[in-house]
């Protein structure tokens, strides 16, 4: 590939690679939460699609260099870069993912003129960011409602409670993984890509996208209903009862074929009603304000380089010798653990110093409830959350826990995240989980709760 002939392609690719290198810890988090997650199994294709889109921009002359530096975009780059530093220090996943993407887009338009065509390849990266998990619960609820209605059309006795569907042969759980989110993400990615490449009008884009998203939802509903029917007919002996992930994709294939059929019809309609307009995008690399471009790159590297977020300034030594406690919560990635026993009460402090993005009190797998125990009751008691837990052997314990920073304690993770964001302005990334436990002689009563709460 001739570097001079394909200068736009190489600049676009270089910007993206620079962004990846400057935000290496965030790229690692994307690998763990997107590429290693079955819901985002399409993520492996996204980088190749983006490279191809860069090539299309070059071939169709949709991208143009700026002739002079854009102060608004440079200001937006500085703001998004600074926001990325703060959100990375505060370790708030959704915010640093969003700030990272905003930094990349801002950098691109400090170098290129803004247009939707140039924006699209960078915006397409949103399909590998784990933003979409927020849709899982509402899609799950919608699936339960629709499946209940569809099962009412069959002669199979069905009882639905929350996300559990009970039939004579067994019980099905419409969990978050059965929400249809994976089909929605893939359909949104395919439809947006098809619109970018082939459709020209807003009306056609809306029609095609609506058909694609509706097809994704219908695919998931048919998959769940079919599994329930198959489970009923086979007395839960079908292999699909344990391995049903691929089953949905088999249903999705005819739905996808229908989507592309609709897309082809929309293309033909546009060809009849619209005239092809060619845009003269004859621009030269020499038109780029080199000083402006270099300034934008420098700001991006300095502000968004999350590689430099941790400088080893924290002392990772515990202030007390960790002791082995017979029952511990499920807390991960702590930089230090301080455990003590005072009378009948065991107390543990898990400290985090922000040594990596997942070394935080709000890590999604952290739970104050020990493995094998079930929450029986919970309440707020002064400055502590209190929980009564029990296991199948009849053992019951009273637990108290709260979250903290170097400055204050909090009852909820939302309050902790707000505090971490504010503390990032002080370059302080420390947080902790304070956890206390006592054994109940019989059923946990108020005296046990008062004993575990200092």
UniProtKB/TrEMBL annotation:
One of its GO terms (biological process) is proteolysis. The chain crosses the membrane at residues 7-27, 39-57, 69-89, 95-112, 119-136, 181-199, 205-226, 247-263. GO terms for molecular function: peptidase activity. GO terms for cellular component: plasma membrane. It is found in: Cell membrane. Keywords: Cell membrane, Hydrolase, Membrane, Protease, Transmembrane, Transmembrane helix. It holds the Pfam family Exosortase_EpsH. It comes from the Bacteria. It is a multi-pass membrane protein. Coiled coil: none annotated. Its main location: membrane. This is Exosortase.
